[in-house]
Structures are given as C-alpha cells and as structure tokens.
Fold this protein.
Amino acid sequence: MDRYVINTLIERKNTILSLVIIIKYIQNMLFQSLNLYSILVAGLTATFIVFMRQLSYYKQQIINKDLKIIPAYFDKKMLY
C-alpha cells in the first residue's frame, strides 16, 4: 500500500473506513512476517536437531574407539 493511498484515505472524511483499511494492511503485514519467521524457526530447529544427532553419533564413535584403545594400552603397560 502506497503512502499516497494512505494519505488520500486520511484526507477524506471517511476516517473509520481508512482506519479499517490501514488495520487490515498492518494485519496482512504481520501475518506475512509471522509466516516468514515460522519458516525460519522451523529450518533452524531442523538444522539444530540434525547437528546434535551428528554430534552424538561422532561422540559415540570416539568413545567406542577410546574404549578399544584403553585395554590394549594397559595390556602393553603390564607386559613391560
């Protein structure tokens, strides 16, 4: 909506009608931004979940690797 259109609506004596139109315009803008924010939040949440799952998977792999190394290390220590 143009600033010119808003000004012409206000200049007329139909202030109630112009207020209704402006309120509808603001509502429309809010709904559009809300839609964008919800898409953004959903995307960030999905990315975070995937990242945490990958992190836990790699952490598990590292722990398994360390558990395999530790007994071999102690066996070697005991031999000498």
